[in-house]
Amino acid sequence: MEARHPKSSKTIMTDLVLPSETNPLNNLFGGELLARMDRAASIAARRHSRRIVVTASVNHVAFNRSIPVGSVVTVEANISRAFKSSMEIYIDVWIEDRESGRRDKANEAIYTFVAVDDTSRPVQIPELIPETDLEKERFEGALRRRQLSLVLAGKMKPNEATELKALFFD
Ligand SMILES: CC(C)(COP(=O)(O)OP(=O)(O)OC[C@H]1O[C@@H](n2cnc3c(N)ncnc32)[C@H](O)[C@@H]1OP(=O)(O)O)[C@@H](O)C(=O)NCCC(=O)NCCS
Question: With a 6 A CB cut-off, is 146 part of the ligand 1 pocket?
Answer without folding.
Answer: yes
